[in-house]
Amino acid sequence: MTDFSHLDPAGGARMVDVGAKPDQQRVAVAEGRLTCAPQTIALLRAQALPKGDVLTVAKIAGIQAAKNTAQLIPLCHPLTLSHVDVEFTVADDGIGIRATTRLTGKTGVEMEALTAVSVAALTLYDMCKAVDKSMSIGGIRVVEKIKK
Amino acid sequence: MTDFSHLDPAGGARMVDVGAKPDQQRVAVAEGRLTCAPQTIALLRAQALPKGDVLTVAKIAGIQAAKNTAQLIPLCHPLTLSHVDVEFTVADDGIGIRATTRLTGKTGVEMEALTAVSVAALTLYDMCKAVDKSMSIGGIRVVEKIKK
Amino acid sequence: MTDFSHLDPAGGARMVDVGAKPDQQRVAVAEGRLTCAPQTIALLRAQALPKGDVLTVAKIAGIQAAKNTAQLIPLCHPLTLSHVDVEFTVADDGIGIRATTRLTGKTGVEMEALTAVSVAALTLYDMCKAVDKSMSIGGIRVVEKIKK
Amino acid sequence: MTDFSHLDPAGGARMVDVGAKPDQQRVAVAEGRLTCAPQTIALLRAQALPKGDVLTVAKIAGIQAAKNTAQLIPLCHPLTLSHVDVEFTVADDGIGIRATTRLTGKTGVEMEALTAVSVAALTLYDMCKAVDKSMSIGGIRVVEKIKK
Amino acid sequence: MTDFSHLDPAGGARMVDVGAKPDQQRVAVAEGRLTCAPQTIALLRAQALPKGDVLTVAKIAGIQAAKNTAQLIPLCHPLTLSHVDVEFTVADDGIGIRATTRLTGKTGVEMEALTAVSVAALTLYDMCKAVDKSMSIGGIRVVEKIKK
Amino acid sequence: MTDFSHLDPAGGARMVDVGAKPDQQRVAVAEGRLTCAPQTIALLRAQALPKGDVLTVAKIAGIQAAKNTAQLIPLCHPLTLSHVDVEFTVADDGIGIRATTRLTGKTGVEMEALTAVSVAALTLYDMCKAVDKSMSIGGIRVVEKIKK
């Protein structure tokens, strides 16, 4: 039967007990996108891309957020991630974000990857908001999840 | 001239100095959406909506994240928000999220509203991920910003 | 000989070295109570119990605090808890709180359970303080501790 | 009519909007107690009181927790406390804890005082738990609240 | 009489009460230095300076740490900094670090500037430690403090 | 070939993937020093050493910072330290600081030891800054690193 693992039969919130799960190698990849005006990308390319700090600041924010996921999302378990990476693809009307998280442990790491993407996107938004009031963040989803 | 306030002329990151700005009443409203399978919403309605804990957990996560924005987004200023609210609209194929933030201070609060929406969406995703592997988060944007 | 493990022979604080301890399954259960006026419980039952958000907000606060115990209590070791649960019993003159924490690791988890109870109680206090100035929190203690 | 300020009419959680409140001098004093076996106090007096680190560690933990209250208690507002103090009274069967918090701001600081007491008590518990399995924490309450 | 403001007459720790102090414009500048082997700087220049991410990562870490000072240093007051900047000077045998912090408030911001320098230096150390085991961090001091 | 493990070939920041490393016992020892005026040490000895709270507050701050290293230094992995110790040596013109960190895990713990020393030094600085404007922090380095 289909089951919301974080909900009890009465709809109450619960943190899953992962204590009996085996330690396995786990990888997750998530993606998302900041969509902005083409002029914003043109300005970034003129002033701050590829060599300025914009993408580096967003990468660091994403990595730090991945490590902090259990403090942000109430029912997530604390994890000791072995790896986080955040990469960007600059297009003419936005910036694609892709985060990879790895762990040998008892629970999947897709929330950590999604959190890295989300906070990297928010950080890009913050750095561009003075020149573009029409940006949006979307397409945040898991694109790969491996357990072995 | 158009200007990235968080970038110096060489593209370097910088935190804006807001010390000379006046204290003003500031409000921001942001929205976003978790899109999921209609069956997921049907299951939530059967098991956990409107009276279960799902939306409350996401609301609390969003409020806490808004208060924590300056720790998540590197160039954001620490703020003492006077109000945060997070509301949800359950549709047949997703859940809409709307966050409002308020402050009397020197800098706008849209990053706090966007962060509340993002983390509330991630929290909903976390609670539904056991039953739906195809969800995505999108449409995160500022819908209102007031300064008076 | 009886020994304060967190104190050196001169009374100085020290963090115990748990590196040589074996990984074991560990469970702790702690309890506590918010005592309030019967009228406060009556009002909660009329306006917000059992279906409002009061207990859920306190549960989430308790779970988050348990995960954050090592940041709150200086000599506690950082842990990666596998499970936290917080339950409530509403009586006529107060609310009982019971927290359970689990871990496979080198050190017991009773401080995490006590922290969950304490912060859940503070959160209940916060939500009721506008209607009741005479509340108190007490009876916080460990009721079960298992190692196997 | 009596009102839970943190609850909406349907019992939903909400963070009060304090933006329209005036800045006032606010003080709160809270108390609590760790109750333990007389032998535990005798041992502390022999090994670690009054000159060892026990009370200092608990004081620091309480001060840090007071500053961190808005991260612990979901509906509390972030504050910039101007003062926190934590004092102890060692009795024959326990340790009394008293915390004072001060602020010039828009909202009261009793939750910060209660949090300081609670975390100081948990820290004392942690330092004594190796010699005493029967301790409890109680009597946590506000004893003074001033606004001027 | 000379006085340790953070110590009571018995040598006990205390957090100063700044509530009665006026709000003033405050600036602090601190400096420090990571000293390393000339070959390390040569390698950095070949592979990662001036355009790689090394200095940007350290800058972001310093800014974030400055905002987090009151959580790191027990008797520091929580502040809402209006500005933090961190700059670097690359020499042949090390990297100089200079941080500036600003606030309109009741207490000085030199601890925030010193913290930014320290954590930026630690971050540089972390990024270079795989190639240089002989590095050291020093010269951390306040070079300017203004109140007006 | 010499390699900056935290940098990719283009100088970009990256978090090393430690997932394939074996769990080993790891120890690191770091040292540093707060240099101050002899009169400051004389005053501390008269008012607050050896029995006052000064060194205890700095020790606790150092331990807490060690546990928090991965939140402070962007590319550090989250760790669950099994032990942290911070010791002080009071000289006539300064205070020496020595921190030891231990872990059974996949990555070294020297950044945790260096962070403990740095934050303990900043805490001492904070407590003495009212009486001495000429202090500096230096000599922060790793003095021992063991893996077995």
From TrEMBL, chains A, B, C, D, E, F:
Residues 15-146 form the Molybdopterin cofactor biosynthesis C (MoaC) domain. SUPFAM superfamilies: Molybdenum cofactor biosynthesis protein C, MoaC (SSF55040). One of its GO terms (biological process) is Mo-molybdopterin cofactor biosynthetic process. It comes from the Bacteria. Pathway: Cofactor biosynthesis; molybdopterin biosynthesis. The keyword Lyase applies. GO terms for molecular function: lyase activity. This is Cyclic pyranopterin monophosphate synthase accessory protein. It comes from Lacunisphaera limnophila. The gene is moaC.
